[in-house]
Amino acid sequence: ADDMALAKKFGARGTPNFFVNGRQITGARPFPAFKTIIDEELKKADKLIKSGVAKKDIYAKLTEKGKLKAAPAPSRQRPKADTKTVYKMPVSPADFGKGPADALVTIVEFSEFQCPFCKRVNPTIDQIMKEYGDKVRVVFKHNPLSFHKDAPLAAQAALAAGKQGKFWQMHDILFQNQKALKPDNINSYAKEIGLNMSQF
User: How far is CA 10 from the centre of its chain?
Assistant: First the structure.
């Protein structure tokens, strides 16, 4: 619910939706769309490091003057993303992420497990992690859409798996099986990745 409220606050109405150091990218975009923004953000981060900013403070510094929320959309249509605007997107140590906490670029991904477009962008995220290594971290936030009836339960399953240190294993298996997200399916995935079922 907190992730969904955050998505609404920052105008992430559809999935997948990304904020790269606070700059929004919408939809299942190819690697070059991310590369352009990531490279720009790395240049900014390098300048800050040279000026004496600690690596662990880069994300906070790059987003400190960002907008605290998106302007309301004038109609029911999804607003067009503006990659120039920076949002002060909160990230906490409790969020599930991959990559180091002091990465120079933080990508906040609003996604859900039943969305075919979200699944389609996963290879792009993998390519980003491979290409940029420890310069990038990806933080996953849940935004199950109302018309995907199995997405809320899948989000709960990922969070429950995360409490046992297996968020990303559950993330991967849910996306691999996104047409089978009923309770019995999810329980079998939990067993497959070795979760303690009574805790799950």
Answer: 13
DSSP 8-state code for residue 16? S
DSSP 64-127: TTSBSSPPPPSSSSPPPP-TT-BB-----TTSEEES-TT-SEEEEEEE-TT-HHHHHHHHHHHH
3-state secondary structure (DSSP) of residue 23: strand
Tell me the per-residue pLDDT of 103-157, one tens digit each, with 9 for 90 and over: 999 999 999 999 999 999 999 999 999 999 999 999 999 999 989 999 999 999 9
What CA–CA distance (Å, rounded) separates 118 from 135?
23
CB-neighbour burial class of residue 165 (10 A; exposed 0-12, middle 13-18, buried 19+): exposed
Percentage of the residues of the chain whose pLDDT score is greater than 90:
88
Q: How far is CA 75 from CA 9, 27, 71, 100, 122, in A?
A: 16, 19, 12, 39, 30
Tokens of 86: 């920076």
Specify the pTM. 0.92
